[in-house]
């Protein structure tokens, strides 16, 4: 399976980034998809999820700042990140909702927010 996250980079606090994830998931539209992040020394956390029908949920720390979206025809999932904070610094990954640690995760994309 392909999970290719891109769009990360270095940005100043208050800035924006848009992450994209290209997948090769068969029957993509039936899977809830999510963006996760892992900061150094911390556990991976789910940041935002979106159902196959487009209903989104967010962890409290990003509500109002991040927007997740998906294109079922292209099998892609995106994360628009605005008003970035230094604590958003992490490697960001996309995967299905409820992905396990032992599942394939891809390389992720690094987001660094400077203060």
Structural features, described:
With 115 residues, the chain is mostly beta strands. The chain is built from no helices and ten strands. A six-stranded mixed β-sheet has the order 2-10-9-4-5-6, with no helix packed on it. Strands 1-3-8-7 form a four-stranded antiparallel β-sheet, with no helix packed on it. The model has no long low-confidence stretch (mean pLDDT 96).
Nutshell version of this structure?
The protein has 115 residues and is mostly beta strands. It has strands spanning 3-6, 9-12, 17-23, 33-38, 45-50, 56-58, 66-71, 76-81, 90-96, 109-114. Helices cover 0% and strands 48% of the residues.
Protein traits:
single chain; 115 residues
């Amino acid at each position: 399976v392909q999970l290719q996250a891109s769009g990360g980079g270095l940005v100043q606090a208050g800035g924006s980034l848009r992450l994209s994830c290209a997948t090769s998931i068969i029957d993509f539209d039936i899977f809830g998809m999510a963006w996760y992040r892992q900061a150094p020394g911390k556990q991976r956390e789910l940041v935002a999820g979106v159902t196959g029908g487009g209903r989104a949920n967010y962890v409290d720390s990003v509500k109002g700042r991040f927007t997740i979206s998906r294109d079922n025809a292209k099998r892609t999932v995106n994360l628009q990140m605005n008003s970035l904070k230094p604590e958003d610094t992490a490697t960001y990954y996309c995967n299905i909702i409820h992905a396990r640690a032992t599942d394939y995760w891809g390389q992720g994309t690094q987001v660094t927010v400077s203060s």
